[in-house]
Amino acid sequence: MFKILLMHGPNLNLLGWREPGIYGTVGFDEINTRMKKVAEENGAELRVFQSNSEGALVDAIQDARNWADGIVINPGAYAHYSIAMRDALSAVKLPTIEVHLSNVHARDEFRHKLVLSPVCVGVIAGLGWRSYLYGLHALLAMLAEQKK
User: Fold this and answer.
1) How many domains does the chain have?
2) Which residue, 2, 41, 87, 147, is most buried by CB atoms nearer than 10 A?
């Protein structure tokens, strides 16, 4: 059974309410429920963590090295400037898929640079809540291939 950490960065706890024209109407709890169901259906365990604090997110990444097989992360705004999170992901060496609800490349120019992406195995953006779904499926498929 694969163990996956699903991480949400700042303000993502407001999904469903916050700027639905950009982030969609599916709420935070609904996304987590859907992802846990998909994980279960695929024989995996999914633990969810959300924080608005960069340090708490770094701590969760570091802790994941003790139990997780991989990470699906929506770092929110930290995607554009958190070298601390990048360093933590690089250090733990867990396969990580970065996801974004919106197409960051079609938004403000400062959102085009993703500093975590170079240490992630893939990035999925612009597909709304399905970015999480496809990120989880991709990570589970990669882990299954590595296990063979």
Assistant:
1) 1
2) 2
